[in-house]
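quick one, two chains, predict together pls
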Amino acid sequence: MTAGLIRRFWVNPTSLTGALVVAAVVLAAILAPWISPFDPLEQDIAARLTGPSPAHFLGTDTFGRDVLSRLMHAARISLVIGVASIAIAMAMGSAIGIAAGYIGGKFDACVTGLLDVLLSFPTLLLGLMVVAMMGPSMDNLILAIALTELAPFARVARAPTIALKDREFVEAGRALGFSDMRLVVVHIVPNLLSEVVVVASLWLATAIRTESSLSFIGLGIKPPTPTWGGMIREGFENIMDAPWLAVAPSVAILVTVLGLSLMGDGLRDALDPKGQRD
Amino acid sequence: MGEFLVRRLLLAIPTLLLSMTLIFVLARIAPGDPALVILGDQATKESLDLLRAKLGLDQPLLVQYRDFLGGILTGDLGRSLVTGKSVWSELLAVLPYTIELTLAALFLGVLFGVPLGVYAAVHRNLWPDMAARLFSLAGLSFPAFVTAILLLLVFAIQLPWLPVISAPRVDDPIDRLRNLALPAFNLGLIMTAYVTRVARSSMLNVLGEDYIRTARAKGIGGSAVLWRHALRNAMIPVATVVGLYLGTMIGNSVLTEIVFNRPGLGKLLLGALGQRDYTMLQGLMVFFAGVIVLANAATDIAYGVIDPRVRYKS
């Protein structure tokens, strides 16, 4: 099934485009310390607010810092926050969903109620509330975004667990005296992993979007560390004189998020080849 | 119908209670002393004690929780720490601007999204469908503030057609509309993307139904089948998801208002964040959560009104 899924993913031009875009962004982020033309924090007051030129491909900001170099380093922060928060949301959300589906009864009802509440809050506002209360730092941002994205994972993991726990192979394991933990980890988790991974790929785009929105509002990582949202915020203050400052990070966010969405959609299509979602 | 209505409204109460509890917990898990955060390191012990008493932070947690819920029930969201005015009155003063923006975006979303979705469904897997799918994917992917900035750059700065700062004069309807145009267009784009996706998917489902085939077999023309028979049923899920999308719309309207410097709940929220006005922040979250829970309930009820099968099933 996995081989078929990977093949269907690669032959779909949409998912292929998405994967290539994401790969390019990830590569630029990883290699930023070596390939970025300048130090992202290096100031050159004499060359402040200069437009795109051969020396500074995307121009310079109010402190004369190279925008391209900052953009590449900012990609590292966005991706680390996005991936870390999704990893936490995936691990915790799936564990909660599997536990609710497996145990069932009142526990399930309570968990479902709580998930409904979490789902009823807009991602941005919940993240904003948490970061505003805990203070803006990388750890708190990761935690806040993970909290906002826990519920979708729990939902996706819960439904198949309910169906799987009564299947013959699980019953057989139970009859052989396997512990609940072994049944869940060895026999149930592998069967719902692909669906959870698809949700992760789709929500990674949302995580990056939330991080950039929080940074734009002023709740992101503090300057001078570059983040895409923070760079747009700084650029927005000079939008009349130096529009490239806001445009460059905007385009970076658009390209990355669209790439991730295309990839996520492609993965979902590959998992659902009959196109049932139509 | 009455029983369904009461049941659905009763169902909203525990969700509402849980939401309020979550906000209360979030506001209290903050590390450190909120009074110290608000007043800063230089504050004297007396002023800190005074603020703690003012915020009710010197009370046991259960008493704070009771007062918090009691306040919400009596419509008292507390007083702003900065202006001293009631949170509720400050909120009501700017609410019309946010409602105006949200309704305009909703209108644009339905106006463009439904025909686009239907057209894409009818031309499934052809280029108009591909284009509509790409548009809706892009519209839903982009952060609202990024599209807002790009629109501002093009339509207010490069082509100075519309005002850069959206501060409408209340007494002038034309000025109000000009100021609403760009923010509404920005939110409307996102809404259109969403409605297009749902309308397309719903229309595809309906077009595959037996009664559509029967209608066609009886010789009813293509457009009559489409508009008279298919569209009516296809719109039921659209009405529902539009209501459920309200939460995301609120988040996006906050960002849009900030970019266009437009009065509304977004600017109020940003001001509260900047000035560490925790009462205002908490009050706004209570308001947002309440609106979303009630909108979800209203959407379910509307669904029951449009489609009687839902009432009998539940």
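The mean pLDDT of chain B is 83.
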